[in-house]
Amino acid sequence: MSGQAIGSMVAGILSILVSLVVSCFGLAGAKPGWGPIVAGAFAVLAATTGLAAIGLGWYSVRHITRSGGRLVGRGMAIAGMSCGAAGLLLTTAAMVLALLI
After folding, report:
1. Rounded to whole angstroms, how far apart are CA atoms 67 and 34?
2. Which residues contact 27 (CB under 8 A, 6 or more apart)?
3. Which pLDDT score is estimated for 31?
4. Could you tell me the CA-to-CA distances from 76 to 60, 62, 64, 98 in Å, in that order?
5. How far apart are CA 54 and CA 11, in angstroms?
6. What is the mean pLDDT of each run of 10 residues along the chain (101 residues)?
7. Cys-Cys link to 12, which of 34, 48, 55, 84 (CB 3.0-4.6 A)?
8. pTM value?
9. Are 12 and 81 in contact (CB under 8 A)?
10. DSSP state of 29
C-alpha cells in the first residue's frame, strides 16, 4: 500500500471536516461580525489540507503507475484527491456565504 495514498485520503477527509467548521463559524458569527474572521483562519487550514490531499494523491498515482505492480492504492489516492477538491469547494462556498450574510 502506498503511504502517499493513505496520506492523501487522510488529508482529504480532514479538509472536508475543517470545511464544515468553516461553515459553522462563518454562518454562526456572520451577523455579530466575528464569523468571517474566525472562519477565514480555519479556511487557511482547510485549503492547505485540501491542496496537500490533491498533491499527495497526484504524486501517489504517478508513483503507483511507475511501480510495475509493486504498489497498490490507486483508488485510495484518487478518493483522497476527490475529497481534497470537495473540501476546497466547500470551504470556498462557506467563506462566500459568511462574507455575503
Report:
1. 49
2. 35, 94, 97, 98, 101
3. 82
4. 9, 13, 11, 32
5. 9
6. 94 96 89 87 95 97 93 95 96 90 81
7. 84
8. 0.90
9. yes
10. T
